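Posting this for the archive.
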Amino acid sequence: MASFSFQFTETRDIQGEQMFYSYVNFDQSVASRRKALTPYSIVCKCTSCVKATPATDKLRSEFVQRIQEVRNQQAIWKANPSYYLDLMLGLRRDILNEGLNGTVSYASCPQAIYLLYRLLKQPRKEKIFFEFKKYNRISKLDLL
C-alpha cells in the first residue's frame, strides 16, 4: 500500500545514535538551509545550523571538490605523500567537526588516508583508516 513513509538503510554502524532526515542539501549555507525550511515552519536547531560560520558554510560548499582534487592527484602522491596526508587529515577533521561524515562523499576521505598511510608504510595507522570499509554500500563503489 502506498504511504507517506521512508525506508532507511544504514551505511555505518548507528547503534545507539539518533537518526535524522534532512529536508535540505548538506552543501548549502546556513542561510540557504533556513530559507528552504521556512515554508515548512521549521527552525532547525541542529549543531550545524546553530554553530554555522562563514568557514563552515565554505567547507560545506567545497568539501566534496576538495576530496576529489586530492584524489585526482593520486598519480603524484609518491612525490610528497606527507603533504597529501596532512591535507586529507585536516579535511577529515573539519568534516567530522561539521557532522558531514554521513555523506556518500565522505567515504573517499578515509580511503585516501588509508592509501597514503599504506604508501608511507605505516601499517598501524593504515589499519585505523580502513574504516571506509564500514560503509558497506559505499565500499562497493569503485573509489580506488
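Residues 136-144 have pLDDT under 50 and may be disordered. The longest helix spans residues 54-72.
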